[in-house]
Structures are given as structure tokens and as C-alpha cells.
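Reviewer 2 asked us to include a model.

Predict the structure of this chain.
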Amino acid sequence: MQLSILKEWIERFKKYLAKPQSRALLHLYESQQLFAQHWDTEAADFATMYDQSLQNNTTKRLWKREAYEPKRLLLAFTTLDADYLRFIFRDLFNEAIEPATRASRFIFHCDELLQQYKTTNPRSIDNNHYHDDYQMVCLYLAFRYPKQYTLYHQEAFQAFLRLLNSRNILESHDMERFFKIMRTVQKLLLKEEELIQCHLARFPQANADLREHLLLAYEFYRFCTASQVKPPF
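Predicted model (C-alpha cells):
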């Protein structure tokens, strides 16, 4: 990964953040804040809590779009065993365990729930829980711990690595490497005070916590690869 190329793109990103079009992704921050307000793994009504945690006044494309409905399937799974869902989310949010391990286990448990759901609902045409591309798993992590994790889109991340002349562009998902690179990018962004001020000026109310949210790193790698990849969220 070439630092000189990265710094060039940071300069371009700084100019972009000062423009009105940079507000196009502010719905991501609204969704994160709503998640933080409502998420409670131990809530008596897990289904209602989960539903309220994934909301947005602008768009639902993070969890609902054509042929992609992870929220609907997770809500359906609550009718099978809400306590088991509590267990798998407790495990996913257990910071004592490496995130890649947690993510893999979460997907494994979703596979189990999908098979149980298909057995219980034999007429259902659902054959996918929509979590095995890691997008939703990273969304849960990013919304629960926004200063540690961010949103993931494999194709955009691979394009970002190619842009920076990375020697190793894996075809498979590598959560450890992804989060490590995103944290490195965030540290470099935070060194640019003018950039950070442009970032924070986009919000109607001051919120110091937003300074360190890794959603900014997602915005950055999406900005860098916009001409090559257009993530659907």
C-alpha cells in the first residue's frame, strides 16, 4: 500500500467533504445513532428491539433492497428462538474474541437458523439469510462499536487496495486485514484537522464522538473507488 497515493486521495477527499454532495451518505450516521439508542441484547421483546434498532428516515437500503432482505430474515428467525439470537449477538459483540472468529461464528449460526426456519416453514422460498457476504455482520459491529469497526463492501475494498498498489488483494473475505487497514486510514484522516472540520460541519448538531467514527473511513474508501464500484448502500 503506497502512502503517497493514499495522501493524494486524502487531499481530494478533503475538498469533497466541503461540497454539498458529501451529505449523500449522512443517513449512515443516522442509522448508527438509532441503533445505539435502541440496541439492547437483553430486551424482553427481542424482535421489536431489533426492528427499532434498524431504522432510517431516508433509506432502508442497508438492510432491504431487491433480492437482499437480511433484516426480514432475522426477524423471521426470532419466531424460532429469540434466546438463541441473543446468544449469537452476545458472541458477535464479545470484544474478548477476534472479530474474524466472531463474524464466522455468526454466519455459521445463521446457517443453522435458516435450516431450522426452512424446516418449520416448508413453503418458504427463502434460501439465504443474507449475512454471508459480511456486509450485515460488519454493519452490526460498526453500529455497536463505531470507533472500532466500519461498513464493508468486498468489491469496493478490493478496488481500494488496487488503487493503492497493494501487493496482496485477497479474493476471500479477510476481516482482520480489512479492519486493520480501516483503522490505519482513520488515523491518517484524523491528522487532517481541516478535513475533520469539514466532516463535522455536515451535521446539524455538534457531536464530538463523530470525529472518531470509522464510518468516515468507509466514506473515504467508497469515495476513492466511486468510478469503479458503486456499493448499493
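Residues 70-92 form the longest helix (23 residues). Residues 106 and 112 are 10 Å apart (CA to CA). We have added this to the supplementary material.
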